[in-house]
Design a protein that fits this description.
The chain is mainly α and 58 residues long. The chain is 84% helix and 0% strand.
Length: 58
């Protein structure tokens, strides 16, 4: 009997679907983390530039 017979196929399909969902969730989480870091970096850069410009004005 084949390893991938019709008897085991539904189980394999369910597992692959679950893995695909897990992978997508992981990618979304990584994207959120990287986006968050990017915004923090932008905020720090902007505030540093504002402080520098205010200092020049004074």
């Amino acid at each position: 009997m084949s390893k991938y017979s019709n008897a085991t196929a539904p189980h394999l399909n369910a597992r692959h679907k679950r893995n695909a969902l897990d992978n997508r969730n992981t990618v979304e989480k990584l994207f959120e983390i990287n986006t968050g870091r990017l915004y923090v970096k932008l905020a720090v850069t902007l505030s540093a530039n504002v402080e520098k410009n205010n200092f020049k004005i004074i």
